[in-house]
Write a structure and sequence with these properties.
Number of strands of chain A: 7
CATH topology of the largest domain in chain B: Rieske Iron-sulfur Protein
Order of helices and strands of chain A: HEEEHEEHEE
Strand content of chain A: 25-35%
CATH class of the largest domain in chain B: Mainly Beta
Largest sheet of chain B: 4 strands, antiparallel
Number of strands of chain B: 23
Radius of gyration of chain A: 19 Å
Oligomer: heterodimer
Helix content of chain A: 25-40%
Strand content of chain B: 35-45%
CATH superfamily of the largest domain in chain B: Rieske [2Fe-2S] iron-sulphur domain
Amino acid sequence: MTKDLVLALAGALAALAAAQPLVLPLPDAIDGAPVHVAIPPDAIRAIDQPTFLRGEAAARQMARDEPVLGVRLAGAARAYPLGYLSSHEIVNDRFGDLPVAVTW
Amino acid sequence: MYARPLHEGKPLTFAVSGMLWKSSLIMFDRETRSLWSHITGKAVAGPLKGMRLTPVPAVHTTWGLWRANYPDTVVLEKARWSRRSPHPFEPDHVLGLVLEGEVVGFPFPELKQAPLAHPAVAGEPLLVVYIEPAATAVAFRREVSGRVLSFHRLARKGEVWQMEDRETGSAWNALTGEALAGPLAGAGLAPVPATQAYLSNWRELYPGGRMWRAD
């Protein structure tokens, strides 16, 4: 097979895989409390590639009393707006060598 | 907030399952499709059931107070369509922490009466600081180099909040736990990971947990 053909097939397979619906285990109850399905998996999309603003651009995006989750790790300080987080619920991020999940 | 553990050499990535349990959303990890509670940090179903995530300290606060303490901070960029957030403050909020299996909630109305609280949790002397205008509560261990400190005089100084310890009179940043001036300048209080949640959600998740009351 030529390299181009291999790449094209790989792309098609990836697209097919992405189109499959996600199937998760659905327990009836956990620790005696019921589990309800509210929406499909990924209907609320976690953020996997967060981008950040600094300085003036950061100040323009935010209101002074806007709630944030603040994290100081590995010499970096980052704020995650809570109202916005509630639309995504989870940010998969990394501070230096430490991968973290910021959740709301 | 949690550290993402490695699974087969790569960090787990978490996503929203869409399932509700005890009024909270359940996460799943893409790698094994195990289900996780984001409040307890425990895998509740799937191949990794029983595994616990390591919590990392993070502070619920306001942008203004956070930036005043960390002027070089960055902020997550929002998509263009998103709206501004509502005002902070929440009488029905609690700062919840779990230390060595002991569960304690600090309801904001109780912290309002004692904004520098000195509880013992799992036998450890802690400090819980409450900054009402910023709807912010943080927890620290108050033992520094073998010495247990006690705190008073919480006050706003310009854009930041400070407090003093009674033992040496040193001045501390009340949000970050760093000593700014006095005999202990340069020291730091170790933060204790804690969560801010709705009181009703916290009670639902930890029905047997203790609720702290101001004396």
